[in-house]
Amino acid sequence: MEKIVLDGVKVWRLFENRLNMGLIQSQERRGQLTKIERRMVQAMAERAQKVNVTLKTFNTFILKFPKIDASFEAVREVFNKADKNGDGSLDMEELKQCLQELQVEYSDQEIEEFHHESDMDASHGIQFKEFIVVLALIYLLGRPTHTGVESAIGLPDLEATFDEIAEAFVFFDRNKDGYVSKKEMIWAINEASPSGRHGHRIGVQRFEEMDWDKDGMITFKEFLFAFTDWVGLENDEEETGHNNVSLPF
């Protein structure tokens, strides 16, 4: 049986062509996005163009999981304080008051948009992991805060975590369009895997976990929400909704 040797340049060109196909697909999807989604895709695409990604492989980012989980858990007290009726989720009024206490300035309509955008399970309430998504969207979209307040959401450690997760997203987003495609996910995981076949399988699994709306493209919101599972974050003492994910990279 003849052994086939693939030329590295040809392989890269093939991958590049597939990325371009993904770019066309992402451009078609933009017409279906909400206002916040459009802004977020643009923000991540701009970040990809400007930020010098220091991650060499995703494995280096995995080492930060315990620290990231700790920064998420540190916000739980803020969430519990905002949850006035103790039902484990924030309604519009509770979220509005919470953002006011964090000195984040948004109109009622804008807060309603963030509430709707982050309600991943369509329960009409923001659970703890969804609250993390709310704060990330607010921070990464870069809305000014009260005069004299240096921290965008009043939680500097969490903001640093969001920057690290955004860098991981950019690491996957090879064509810098503000989305992560299945091919981009598989390519990045393959780089971290000692076996190409194993890396392909894991890449497909991870993509399916993150593609919450099953449209074939991952937004930062979906990436972050899946990521809260990866680091072991729970909504409350008894996990509800989306299943926890073990991460065998």
Automatic annotation (TrEMBL):
Keyword check for Nucleotidyltransferase: no
Matches recorded under PROSITE patterns: EF_HAND_1, EF_HAND_2
Keywords: Calcium
Molecular-function GO terms, alphabetical: calcium ion binding
SMART domains, alphabetized: EFh (SM00054)
Record-annotated EF-hand domain positions: 70-105, 160-195, 207-233
This protein's record includes keyword Calcium: yes
Source organism, top-level taxon: Eukaryota
Listed PANTHER family: TROPONIN (PTHR23064)
Listed name of the protein: EF-hand domain-containing protein
Gene: LOC112283609
